[in-house]
Every structure is written in C-alpha cells, then in structure tokens.
C-alpha cells in the first residue's frame, strides 16, 4: 500500500512539474507572449488587397518571425459596420476620410493615432478590347451602355464618382445608366468581364489587370483629393504586434511598395 502511495505521489509531482514548465513556456494557459499577441487583424479597403496580399503582408511576416497578419477586405463602409458589430480588428485602413472619421467620432479610433497616409486617383475605364470613342468624363452623359460605379452609400470610390459626376453637372444624365457595385473590385470585374461598358475605379485597380484600359482621370477640380487614412483600433488586444505593423507601414520600404502599386504617399 505504501509503495502504491509513493507511486501516486511521484506521478502527481511529475505532472505538476510538466504543467509548470508548459505554463512558463506559454504552451499552457495565458502568456504575455501568446500567439494572440502576435497576430494583427487588419481591416482594409478592397482596393488594398493586391498590395497587401502580394507584397506587404509576406514582407512583414518575414521580418517579424512568429507574427501573422490576418486581413479582412471589403468596402470601407462595410468594414465600419463590421467593426461596430464586433469585428476584432487591430488596424483599419480606409479608402476615404469619411469612414475613418465615423470610427473616430464613435471612439473606436483615437484621432491622435490617425495617419492620412496614401493618395489615389479616380479613372474612367473600359474593357481592354473596347472601341468606345470616349476621351473624357463629361462624355459619359452621351454614351450608351452600362456605367459601373461603387455604391455611394458604402463605397468610397462610389462616393468620389458621385461627387465628380455631380460637380461636372452630368449626374442626372448618367444615373439611369449606373450599375452600383458592393466595392471597387466588383466594378473592375464588371468592366473586365464586359458586363459593363464603362467603369469608375481607382487608378491602382486599373493597373492591376490587363483586361481593362484607362480612358482618362477625373478632372482634378471635380472632386477632393482621395486620401487613404490608417490607424490602430483603440481597443486592440495585440498592442505590440499592432505597433510594429503601424511602424512597418510607415517605413520607406513599405512606402516604396505602395508607390510600386500606383499609390502616392500623402504629403500634409
């Protein structure tokens, strides 16, 4: 009996030692260096998908072993709704100041951490094989066919298109021809696939495929500068990784990648 008790005690001691070791190494329980602290949940406008997926996320993860970036892409307006409904985002990068300001006004983002970071251009595109005889935004009032734009209710690219077309005085003429898409990538795909004869997208989106061609840029005086702000969320649970990611985005090598993909660095 005494021998059995000694064995039981020895087993309990061994289990306790193993458990303590696992806890100290972060393999059991909660640790300051747990995997959660090493993950950055990125909520980014759909027009940023290519540059992040193809270059920036792999670059950041290579430079920071053990850290990962998990992206969610959608229209900036949809991302705001997702964040308000509990999306666990650490960093938000919008294709417009309006959406960032909404989160600042509701205390999801601290305005002091908001960086007005990139600029883009609004362009008119047609399918690559199109023989449409059009050279300006103003001529859209006379064309036949479908004009795809992002839904102005939630898509910044659509809001910029709305602004430009109104300021050019042709909104009433083009509105019956409009096809409203859920994000700017959907607009690009409609034109690339030929389901829309014309589309208004960012220049960076047009640059991402050979299936469309750019007709022209929106007249500069028809809309405000297109700015992409980026900021950490105030309630981010992954502070160290988030801070490293924000620092990385503003590094020269990251800025060079953004420029490579057609963006301009915003200069305040």
From TrEMBL:
Keyword annotations from UniProtKB, A to Z: Membrane, Metal-binding, Molybdenum, Signal, Transmembrane, Transmembrane helix
Q: Name one GO biological process term.
A: molybdate ion transport
Q: Which InterPro entries match?
A: ModA (IPR005950), ModA/WtpA (IPR050682), YvgL-like_PBP2 (IPR041879)
The UniProt record lists the keyword Membrane: yes
Which superkingdom?
Archaea
Q: Which Pfam families match?
A: SBP_bac_11
* Signal peptide annotation: none
The membrane spanning regions, by residue number, are 7-25
Example GO molecular function: molybdate ion binding
SUPFAM superfamilies linked to this entry: Periplasmic binding protein-like II (SSF53850)
PANTHER family tied to this protein: MOLYBDATE-BINDING PERIPLASMIC PROTEIN, SULFATE-BINDING PROTEIN
Tell me what this protein is called: Molybdate-binding periplasmic protein
Taxonomy, top ranks, is:
Archaea, Methanobacteriati, Methanobacteriota, Methanomada group, Methanobacteria
